[in-house]
Amino acid sequence: MDNFTVGVVVFPGSNCDRDVSWALEGCLDIRTKYLWHESSDLSDVDAIVLPGGFSYGDYLRCGAIARFSPLINSLDNFVKSGRRVLGICNGFQILTESGFLPGALTANKNLNFICDDVELDIVSSKGGWFNDGGEKQTIKLPIAHGEGRYHCDSDTLKKLLDNELIALRYKNNPNGSSFDIAGITNEKGNVLGLMPHPERACDETIGGTDGVVTLKSLILK
Amino acid sequence: MINQENYDLNEALKVENLTINDYEEICKRLKRKPNRTELGMFGVMWSEHCCYRNSKPLLSKFPTKGKNVLVGPGENAGVIDVGNNQKLVFKIESHNHPSAIEPFQGAATGVGGILRDIFTMGARPIAVLNSLRFGNLDKSSNVDLLRGVVSGIAHYGNCVGVPTVGGEIDFDDSYSGNPLVNVMALGLLETNEIVCSGAKNIGSPVLYVGNTTGRDGVGGASFASSELTTTSLDDRPAVQVGDPFIEKSLIEACLEAFKTGDVIAAQDMGAAGLTCSSAEMAANGNLGISIDLDLVPSREDEMSPYQYLLSESQERMLFVVKEDKINDLIKKFNKWGLYANVIGQVIATNEVIISHKGQIVAKIPTSALSDDTPVNFHNVIDTPPDYLLKKWEWKESDLPAIYEQKIFSLKENKNFSYSEIILKLLSNPSIASKRWIYKQYDSQVQSNTVFKPGKSDAAVIRLREQNNKNKNKVFSGIAASVDCNSRWVSLDPFRGAIAAVAESARNVSCVGAEPVAITNNLNFSSPENEIGYWQLSSSCNGIAQACEALETPVTGGNVSLYNESKNKDNVITPINPTPVIGMVGSINNVEKAISSEWKNIDDEIWLIGSTKSDTTIAASSYLEYFHGEITGRPPKIDLVDEKFCQNFLRNAILKSLVVSSHDISDGGLAIALAESCILSSKGATIELTRDLNRDDNLLFAEGGSRIIFSISKINENEWLNYLKENQIKIPSSVFVKKIGRVSNETLKIKIQDKDICNIRVEELSEKFNNSISGYF
After folding, report:
1. Would the annotation count B312 as a binding residue?
2. Which of B253, B379, B410, B488 is the most buried (most CB within 10 A)?
3. Domain spanning B386-432+594-775: which CATH class is it, in words?
4. CATH number of A6-218
5. How many CB pairs lie under 8 A apart between chains A and B?
6. Which residue in A206, A209, A210 has the most chain B C-beta atoms within 10 A of its own C-beta, making it the best mutation to test that interface?
């Protein structure tokens, strides 16, 4: 486990890449490595985080350009191998744009960017991303996004529900997301996308440690 | 041979905002007539925005040196030593006129511009604050302006990944046609050496990096240096368009480039674009620069030399670099998808030489552009204007007598209880929660923001370099606050300016940090009007005096004049004079910093303040918002006591004796108490003793260098010991007294054992939180 390395992807416009790296290395002692968006060699990382930010400026649509990057193109095999991928905020948007997760993220209902702390219900234990066996069923994490309103058609929603793919739901829906969805996993459970920022809650000095379990679970098999 | 085309001189001078005297001076300096392009270059370089032609004599009064100041005024931004070998770069700048006519892009590029000033020096931007002024929100155009400005700041700041951590906003009708948008940025130096702007090494290549040059923002600096009129909307092309994505990439590429040590000098292209940056690099290095415009990456065809030189297209920088490292540097920029073109070189003669299509289109001695720039001297009136002298006669006894704990509002012609007045003040947009605004700003990115916005008197940032992953270290921190009570400045520019410096320092002290230095943004009306100039001059005197006394030197700033608007009937409305102070302070252990909300039930609530600093209803928020009167002379602040109170409290905070602290400002003691209740969802039981003043003075008076703070139960003895040990040092004019305890659910205030206010915190919050958001 000592050599376990989490790849943190850097697109031009990513701006939470260093925060993720600080949370993992500084707070949790997990080794990280930056992966430049043009690289397609993922052989020396054991898990991947797609961090928040505005990849390629997020012009056109959030995540719409990032999905064509060499790195995302090589992600398919990585996911199929069962290794873990965590998409936070813009990372979640990229995962839906590139089809690793269903649905889409659209502009917040009030059309404004929202930066706030939100209460979240842990809905599913799939992939073990949230529950470390403790009692905690509700966590508080920061959000910061302009386009975080999760949307999907009713068939997809049914599939999400039937397969327990909804990981997190807002207690007080801030952005108009369908079914209060804040985060979902793929069927296998090794890919998680969420709008809240667990990396901003791994450190008491800046407000809370409710994000620790999620980042720590990157090293789960 | 220099290209000399004919042009209409009068028309050209008008466009460039130059006088005929300026023109004669230019001819003298060039020893010939300038061509049209050269005249344009002089126009921007000699504007107030670039050379402070009206304010220069006043700015020279500011103290600019201090033990922690590494770089003072003159460079792109100020630099201070914050200990542990860390250097903090900071500056404030305005984007008022662009925001008036195009609020979204005006505000967005305001953020972009000030960030470039920071990273040009080798620092990574770590925080942004803003100070905003708008007309009252009952007018829909002001609501639209606020919405546009806030989304512009959010758009740029959020995307570029720099947290917006604090700010202030105030509403007054004088800003209706001319809102103020001031942005302060702070950065932490990541290079060993501060990157300066002076060109060095003759023959070194001049490298242009960043975005392309277009026609946007041509003449922006001249435009910013004249008043707004009904036709100003036609100047919309003078407003630049920003691209925060390019800026983010530019930050990364520049910092990578600076770390190699291969960049000899750097200057961002801000106001006056290529003209200003090349002239300043040449002048600061005492050398010359030659530039070939054909090598400049452009986004539009057929641009004229004039347009190239005066374009204010965003996200561009000019470097002087080591010749043998040029390819490595270009590669770094290309990796981030940015242009990097060699467009000229450093030359031995002290001239800026510009060529275009094989012809020299401008050839100006650098000294002609930037040395001894013209100064407009104005006469300063020696007594305050009559209308103010009259207002200063106002006294508290002019208010209606208090009858059965009810006060008659002169504004609404009816009686109100104290509780009703508190709720009324809390829902005034200038006092109410600014949550609707700061919720749109990413305040957390970079993972160093210690308190959420609105929770503390000053923003607190942990100083952790982005690549530092050592958690076991004790991190130091910095605090920052922007402040200006523009009502006070309008009623007494000297006292008001002193108060602005004192308040910003007090805010920084309230979190536990030591005030170190300031940057300032002087927003005033036309200096050609004698009252406008008197306001500017008196404010500068006040700032100078306060900064001297509080030992917080001025490291730079920005002057924005001609802030006034003209309506259809040609009636001119000048803004309230608004000298915004951006204070920074440092704290050795960031874990010691405290916020302003109550912490535990039963904690003691204390008050510190000075009787030498006036505590008065004159010029207060209560007088304006409850009685509808903007009058009276604002409080005089005793700077010696002010400093004592701040030091005394700060030392107690650093000993971990104090768990919350909040300065008393708009709305007085009652509002400060209410705010600490709202932020904590806890109540307070307060007992006050009646003095010679009216009860509304006890509750709502402002001034007095006062701060409320709370002591946790477990620290009570230690606190009393600290107080006793220091008793002898406390001046007789300073009081430190217990006024109550933190409680559940309600804010109760007694005066002489009589209940005068009893409000549930829920009700306070409801008024406080739903005021501004109600307009959208």
Report:
1. yes
2. B488
3. alpha beta
4. 3.40.50.880
5. 100
6. A206
